[in-house]
Amino acid sequence: MKISSLSSRPALVGFSAFALSATVASAATFPRFDGYRSEADSPAAAAGLAGVLVVDKFETPDRTLGLVVSSGSVVGANSVDFDDASLDGTGTTGKSLQLGAWFPFQAPNTTLGFNATDLGAPPRFAGVVVTNASGVENPDGSAALIPVTMTVYMTDGTSMQQVFNVASAENDASDDIFIGVDLGADATVGIDSINISATTPIQIDHIQYTGVAAFGPQFVRDDHNGDGRSDVAWFYEPGRKSAIWNVLPSTVSGGYTSINPGSVDSDLVGTGDVDADGKADMLWYNKVSKRYTIWKMDGVNAAATEIVRYVGTDWVPIAFTDINGDRKADCVFRRTGDGKTEIAVWLMDGPSIVSGVLTSFPATYTAAYVGNFDSDAAGELILRKGGSAIDAGALFISQFSGATPSAPTRMLNGLGSSEPALSSAFQIEGAADTDADGIDDLIVRGNDTISRWKIASSAVQAKSDIFSGTGSYWTIVGFPDFDGDRRRGILFRGGNGETWSWNLNGATIIRSGALNTVDPTWKIATKQN
Fold it and tell me: Pairing between strand 202-210 and 53-56?
């Protein structure tokens, strides 16, 4: 594999190498909700974060993944939970965290720390529910408001502070109050920790924060050595060679794989973790034998297993990803013709096919994109309508149930209306989670502009241009996460073999720069649709 330094080549206009964007601190808000009863009342739901919200209810001795509480004592009183089948705050089994004490007096003060390594990324949203802030009266006998101070420390060393005046009676769950912070969808920093203090003792419950990895390990798409960062897999067809790049963040290392493709007729068509060991494997297709082969990977070390099943070249591999939520890569194929579209799925367990399902749709869809476009663990399928009818170019959504996709329905926008058909001048380049919310977005290219379509609840919520002026010289070849922050970026290939990377936070480029130049006869795994 020839690796050389960049010489003269058209730059991606407007970006110096690896320029960092500024923090969008002005977008931060301090949401509050009075009368909190359950997670459904959390402001996280309105912010579209319910699917990645983690809640610690103090009902077990251990804290939830990624959370460290510096002080306080767990007590069996005034819990927000239905601990005795009634939300009344008087149950004997529910738990809350007591901060401070009356006798002898101790002012409440605790720090909630968030471990970004455990969570996959630092939270953008966090808060607590105040379940008891009482014991002080006004001169007229009414309950006095207790000032509760929240100090938020960000991952860049900056901080913010907000004072909430609250009153929550003891043994009364009807007046609990959520207080929190939301840095906003475009924040380029996260929450490192939160300090909670008050003038008199209080109790808190339902500590909540966002965390992509908190529901268990995530499906691994392109990390071959298990370090939490994307790698780049290459193959050299004329010489039957393959190699892996490790990129951090602009330094390239790696090497050749321990085995070589068996034939010049073999193409690398996808990468994904077939056995949930946390390391991405490779999927190869031989155009002559019409067979697929799985390479089990551990870094550059590979072990090959052929799948003994004939698959014609008319079946296009559109995904090598987890569609049933078991964190094991499955194979999805598309065949279109004679006025219908067929979708074939192999559910995989390692190199073995657990089950295979064929589904036929009575319409011509010229492209298909597999991802997770809502907050559940199962995958979805976005189909682009072909032909010349009035709905040509329209997007349709299908939900996977196991290996079976549902009948496609027209994709909606955030207003509940049908998303307009996409002009033939625009190409959907692929699906990628660009903001670490656990939901894939669409990367769309057209008229020299690259855009990010924000997806939630399987609908197009917003469209934002990432950059204009890339030009046709640069081809999008992948969506890696080179820094391990769970936000996928864009990898480009130039006409003469150059590579260029954007790290993204939503539609904002936070790092941009050249990687190495590689002979154009070396290819990256085929982008699937």
Answer: antiparallel
What is the pLDDT, as a whole number, of residue 471?
Answer: 86
- Identify the three-state secondary structure at position 157: coil
Judge whether residue 100 has pLDDT over 80. Answer: yes
Residue 527, Cβ density class (10 Å: 0-12 exposed, 13-18 middle, ≥19 buried)? middle
Measured between alpha carbons, how far is 29 from 337 in angstroms, rounded to an integer? 51
377: left (phi > 0), else alpha (psi -120 to 50), else beta?
alpha
CB 343 within 8 A of CB 405: yes
Instruction: Using alpha carbons only, give the angle 391, 394, 400 rounded to the nearest 5 degrees.
Output: 125
The set of residues, in sequence order, having a beta carbon less than 8 Å from that of 99 and lying 6+ positions away, is: 71, 72, 108, 109, 110, 196, 198, 201, 202, 203, 204
- N- to C-terminal Cα separation, the chain: 28
The residues that bridge with 317 in the sheet, in sequence order, are 333
pLDDT of residue 293: 97
pLDDT digits (tens, 9 = 90+) for 443-488: 999 988 999 999 988 999 999 999 998 888 999 999 999 887 778 9
State both tokens at 516.
């190495």
Q: Is residue 54 scored above 90 in pLDDT?
A: no
Which tokens is 44 given? 């996280």
- 233's CB contacts (< 8 A; 6+ apart) are 222, 224, 242, 243, 244, 245, 268, 271, 282, 524, 525
Dihedral sign for Cα 183, 184, 185, 187, please.
negative
**How many CB atoms within 10 Å of residue 106?**
12
| 162, 29 Cβ separation under 8 angstroms | no
Reference 32, options 23, 24, 41; nearest CA is 41
Which residue do the tokens 């799948």 mark?
307
Nearest Cα to Cα of residue 503 among 468, 467, 472 = 467
pTM of the predicted structure, to 2 decimals:
0.66
Instruction: Quick: pLDDT tens for 200-246.
Output: 999 998 899 987 643 445 678 999 998 888 999 999 978 789 999 99
Q: What is the band of 3 on the pLDDT scale with cuts at 50, 70, 90?
A: very low
pLDDT at 11 over 70: no
Beta-strand pair 380-385/340-349? unpaired
Q: Does residue 449 contact residue 465 with C-beta atoms inside 8 Å?
A: yes
- Residue 118 is predicted with a pLDDT of 72
Structure tokens at 63: 């804290």
Annotate 387-419 with DSSP letters as a single string.
SSSTTTT-EEEEEEETTEEPPPEEPBBTTSSBP
Rg of the Cα atoms in the chain:
26
